[in-house]
Amino acid sequence: MKYLESFELVHRDLAARNVTVSEDLNIKVADYAMFCEEFVGDYHVVADGSRLPLRWMSWESLLMGMYSPASDVWSFGVTVWEVLTYCLAKPFEEMSDDQVVANASEWRCGGRGARVPAAPPPRCRRELYDLMHECWRREPSQRPRFHDLHRYLDRMTHGYKPPANR
């Protein structure tokens, strides 16, 4: 995502369903989940027939159709949460699609009373949940850039070596 951001390119559907991890832990971001039957429930069909991943979308993308690297950062925060929950839950799971849109309207009107996409996952380090909250800042210009997120996560995991393949 840092690479896409460097060209001001926007993904628009960053979610765990669009991420693959190889055996040697290389991560690739794709964009094929919208066409998989398995993920049809992750998308809301709008009047013109297009599908939106509204539970992963920033308020400005959902309500105003404004997409930017900052809106991808919002989705990244949701994706980190998904990974930490082993993808066993969805953001705003207890809300209907209409309630998710109403919540986005709260964000648009100043954020008071608006809910973040998800509560802290079990055993989530406070620093990591705080990072998610940084991704969910109301003002897109106040969200971290992927360059900064990469640097922070790199420092957080400094010295980590994955177990050798057996």
Write a structural description:
With 166 residues, the protein is mostly helical. It is 36% helix and 6% strand. The chain has six helices and four strands. It has helices at residues 2-6, 59-64, 69-84, 97-108, 126-135, 146-156; strands at residues 19-21, 27-29, 44-45, 51-52. Strands 1-2 form a two-stranded antiparallel ribbon. A two-stranded antiparallel ribbon has the order 3-4. A hairpin with a 5-residue loop joins β1 (19-21) and β2. α3 packs antiparallel against α5. The protein starts with a helix and ends in a 10-residue tail after the last helix. The model has no long low-confidence stretch (mean pLDDT 91).
Summarize this entry quickly.
The protein is mainly α.
Features:
single chain; 166 residues; mainly alpha; two-stranded antiparallel sheet; two-stranded antiparallel ribbon; 36% helix; RTK; Ser-Thr/Tyr_kinase_cat_dom; Tyr_kinase_cat_dom; Protein kinase domain-containing protein
Write the layout of secondary structure elements.
Blueprint: H1 2-6, E1 19-21, E2 27-29, E3 44-45, E4 51-52, H2 59-64, H3 69-84, H4 97-108, H5 126-135, H6 146-156
Antiparallel strand pairs: 1-2, 3-4
Helix pairs in contact: 3-5
InterPro entries: Kinase-like_dom_sf, Prot_kinase_dom, RTK, Ser-Thr/Tyr_kinase_cat_dom, Tyr_kinase_cat_dom
Organism: Loxostege sticticalis (Beet webworm moth)
Domain Protein kinase: 1-153
